[in-house]
Amino acid sequence: MKSSYWKKLVYLLIVLAVTKVIAKTVIEGKESNVSTFVITETGKYTSLDPLDGDSSQNLPVARMLYATPVEINADNTLGSRLLESFDYDQSTKTIKWVVKDNVSYSDGSMITAEDIAFSVSRMAFTRPGFPLIKLIVGLDEWLKKSEPLKMYPSGIEVNGHTITIKLKEDYPHPLFRFCLELFSVIPKSCVNLNTNKIECRKIPTSGYYEMVENVDDTLLFQKRPSIAEIQGKLTYPSEIRFVYSDAAKILEDKALVSNKTVIQSSEAKLTREQMKVVKSNYEVSFTPAAWFTLLQVNPNIAPFDKPECRFEFARLFRKNFEIESDEGSEGSIFTKLVRGYKTLDDLTKIESQTHSNSDRARCLEEFRKSRIPWGFEKTTPITFSKAILKTAKDLGIQIDGPLEFKDRKEEVEKFVSDQSAFMYGRTGFWALDPTGDTQMLFTPNLHKGLKHFWNDQVLQGFLQTIVTNGEVNVSTVDAINNYLFQDAKLNVYSHIRRFYASKNKELVQRFPIGITSPSPWHLFGEH
User: Fold this and answer.
1) Among 63, 180, 231, 507, which residue is least crowded by beta carbons within 10 Å?
2) Is the Cβ–Cβ distance between 296 and 490 less than 8 Å?
3) DSSP bridge partners of 253
4) CA-to-CA distance for 283 and 181, rounded, in angstroms?
5) Helix (H) / strand (E) containing 485
């Protein structure tokens, strides 16, 4: 009896072991076909609402899940999964879209012209000051209605499969704006037309992929089975896995040597020496230097309620950043690629006429009496954190903390609620429309972390006149650059490039540069 029992037990253990080996083999075989996208610049997404799609942590996921009315193809041309045709008539200032037949969401329901037009009117309702959107005919009257989301402004018409959007004045490259994730198309039925809140428990996706797994620091996306090959005649992987990683770990993580892996990062995340190691270990491609890093100083926390005190802190911070990073610093919100660039020396000469030595002396006295809260989230560059601590020490400021926030959303919440004095930032301007991007950056009710600029009457006044009838006002561009530098709530301190690295050169040698961030699936295309 005992002998029979033990034989059965041994047999069962052998079966389990063999099954485990087979399962492991199958899993490893499946995993070997998964393309991996390593993100070091931000943590996981905090919202799937398209209205939050432009936030750095939400943007890559929005690109995977949703289609926008117009898209950037891998060859830097404009295309669309949703539209049969799209054009802009400059003489009549009218955008015209013709919606394709039989294009579906992931749940099988059809994507309608109403859904696409609603993506525009929802943005107009939420951010009427957004560039291009604010030029839609009838917008002001529409916003005054009791239930505007149940109709469209007079400048937006839906007639069968055709959508027309009429503008009050000409705008440069208007179709380009609708490539933004903020215009991602979801079913109109998923939105409460009274509250503007998402009501669907799971939003059907209009894009090329669905999210099928969300575990710890990884997400797994599968290409939708009904999707035809993406425009540009490229074939994209059936599965893409996102892995969120600290930038420094890419130097030591041997799991990233796969020929199916692409790493996304930026020069702001690594020291010069670390960048040398990356270049020696991987094939690296850089996007244009259209990006800049920011030190935001909270104007609601004394003594930073005085612009001269904010400026003094930012001035010394730039010097300490140069020490920590072993590289020079910048001050212009416009990089060398776009109109409006000024050297740090040029900006400083202008500033010296604004803040006197006596102003600075008073600030230095107040600094020595100050105790200031500060915290940051884990993806903040070490050079930024070290420069903050050294600057505070040099000025005699006592820091409460620093605290470590769980994600970018919490960091922003603490900053705008005046529980943190400083915040790291990083963004970039598309070279095709930098003035539109400048307007977009400071649009009220868009980026919560820039809330201190929503009611800044000086800045908002400049933004209203930066473009008139499709022409850029150079004097206004200069005025914005000078004002931001002197006001010192938002302090540019470096101009950087984003880079993509892989063991496989083919994965990083062709991707669109018409936008600051190519879609993840652009990176894995095969001819």
Assistant:
1) 231
2) yes
3) none
4) 29
5) helix 474-487
- pLDDT, tens only, 379-389: 899 899 999 99
Does residue 426 carry a pLDDT above 50?
yes
Q: Tell me the torsion sign for CA atoms 484, 489, 490, 491.
A: positive
d(C-alpha 265, C-alpha 274), whole Å: 12
3-state DSSP assignment of residue 392: helix
Task: Label residue 383 exposed, middle or buried (CB < 10 Å: 0-12, 13-18, 19+).
Answer: buried
pTM for the whole thing?
A: 0.79
d(CA 172, CA 373): 43
Q: What is the DSSP letter of 334?
A: S
Copy the structure tokens of residue 475.
């004097």
Q: Alpha-carbon torsion 203, 406, 446, 68, what sign? A: negative
Q: Give residues with Cβ within 8 angstroms of 203, minimum separation 6.
A: 48, 65, 186, 187, 190
Judged by DSSP in three states, 251 sits in: helix
Most confident of the ranges 139-148, 276-285, 344-353: 139-148
Tell me the DSSP string of 88-148.
EETTTTEEEEEEPSS-B-TTSPBP-HHHHHHHHHHHHHH-TTSTTGGGBTTHHHHHTSSSG
Contacts 24+ apart (CB under 8 A), 18-27: none
Total length of the chain = 527
Contacts of 501 (CB under 8 A, 6+ apart): 250, 262, 263, 265, 278, 282, 283, 284, 285, 508
d(CA 485, CA 344): 9
Q: Classify 377 as helix, strand or coil.
A: strand
Distance CA 331, CA 159 (A): 49
Q: Exposure pattern of 463-485 as b/e (b: 16+ CB <10 Å)?
A: beebbeeeebeeebbbbbbbebb
